[in-house]
Amino acid sequence: xTVGVVGTRRGRRSESRENAGRFFQQxxxxxxxxxxxxxxxVPLLYVVLGGFxxxxxxxxxxVAWPHPWITHNYxxxxxSGAFWRQIGNSAIIAAIATAVIxxxxxxxxxxxxxxxxxxxxxxxxxxxxxxxxxxTVAVLPLYIELRQFHILDSPLGVALPEAAFxxxxxxxILRPFMRAxxxxxxxxxxxDGCSKIAFFWRILVPLSRPALTTxxxxxxxxxxxxxxxxxxxxNNANEWTLPLGVASxxxxxxxxxxxxxxxxxxxxxxxxxxxxxxxxxxxxxLSGAIKG
Amino acid sequence: MTxxxxxxxIGRRRLRPIVVxxxxxxxxxxxxxxxxxxxxxxxxVLYPLVQAVxxxxxxxxxxxxxxxxxxxxxxxxxxxxxxxxGAIKHNFILVGLSLVVQFPIVLSVALLxxxxxxxxxxxxxxxFAPYVLSEAITAxxxxxxxxxxxxxxxxxxxxxxxxxVQLWLADLNVVLFTMFVVITWKYxxxxxxxxxxxxxxxxxxxxxxxxxDGAGALQKxxxxxLPLLGPTIRIWGFLAIIGSLQxxxxxxxxxxxxxxxxxxxxxxxxxxxxxxxxxxxYGCAVAVILFAISFVCALVYQRFVMRRDxxxxxxxxxx
Lengths: 292, 319
Fold this sequence. Notes:
The complex is a heterodimer of chains A (292) and B (319).
Chain A: H1 12-50, H2 55-60, H3 72-78, H4 81-114, H5 120-132, H6 135-148, H7 155-179, H8 183-191, H9 196-207, H10 209-225, H11 228-233, H12 242-252, H13 257-291
Helix pairs in contact in A: 1-13, 3-13, 4-7, 4-10, 5-7, 7-10, 10-13, 12-13
Chain B: H1 22-56, H2 73-80, H3 82-113, H4 120-132, H5 135-145, H6 151-158, H7 175-200, H8 204-212, H9 217-245, H10 249-254, H11 266-275, H12 280-304, H13 313-318
Helix pairs in contact in B: 1-12, 2-12, 3-7, 3-9, 4-7, 7-9, 8-9, 9-12, 11-12
């Protein structure tokens, strides 16, 4: 008697029961997806659609389809200098912070992963300690310090601390990655007369590109969405970043609900576009970092 | 030219290649790689922490000279201020809610979705989207839809739950839980994706072997899935705890810690009582307390919960 695949040992009746069970599960999968999806999307949809109405309509009928489609809110914001200036500021700060994080972080991770020296683990611990040190705690003394360096109200005043606080995560992600690169590669390079510095620059960095991309994406997202640090550092409205702009717009135009909805909707666009483009990296990077 | 003395050919001077000893060279290279990051880190992360402790011992407005030494006076004032102790309580309520409420939801949804189905990639995109949006945007969105007779109220009414409608933001007893719902909306997708990734690391063969041995679904979950998902769960828990303790952006924009300080977190309290009121010394004391609490929680968590996952730097340090 041949032992078949599990399933043929049972009778025909339980096979159809199995199929019914599977259908049942699939059904629930779709139900859960739809419900969760709706809960996630409906608020976002509400914001986008609400921007196409005016405040009077919203007050009278809070939940309704735009009719007619009023584009005034969106166009006036999209043509306002403030909105684009805030996007520009956010972009500059994110770029500087990411550049600094990736450069300094990869150098530090290289040293911590491929050199053997006394105090190496201690140094690594010092960096990981930063994970427990929230920006929130340091924000008040940072304000004083940035004031002393005269970089308040400037992109550097936001980008540099963001970079410093992003170093722990970066080092933690990069170190195991760099460690995993076989030392034979290094030995072969040394035989060919390659110094350790050149090895870093010419071989290790290109090989680490996936991890570096992950780290960059994390840095960009964290910087783009930062609120407390820019709130404290940037007093000049011209220097504001997008999250600050959204929050203050809501405060300033509290009566004009439609305008706020339009502003918020437009503010979501950069983040969502970036997310669509880099989704694999963000999700994969986070899960990979957590596992590794 | 004298014979017998080892020389190279150019005159009597021995040409010695300039060799920095390899040890020296190693330290030079190390410094090049490590020092910039370390200096940066010390300057913007560790130094402010030290300064926070320093400022916290003074009564100082942030302007002018620091002269008014009050020792632990600020700390005493903080712990005797019911608004602050209330804020601490709120933070821990949020921690508890995250672990007790979010965890079962995240786990069950991840388990359910851990199978191939059409539209899976799209679902992943949708669930993860709130995580990418800034807390500021999330806060403004929910501030608007939680208004009386707004989207949330209307949705409740449309499914027949009109009686359950509350004053989500104005009711003193409800507002903190409203904040929790917003936090959950933002971060639950992240948890689901994370757990899904962890589930994918569990080899199929284990479940199949268990099925052959007659294990039911629940037994499979209890003896295979949960233990193997352990590291992911524990990391998620860590992030949830630390995130709940440090919460600022969402709460500040929606409620500013109100009404009547009933949705205050330690961070919003620090901001409103330290920065806004120009009481830097006091604010720094609050910050130090916040740090101490986070640190202790993290240490305890690493020591007792994560011990078997990572012989992490912190556990070694604490041991």
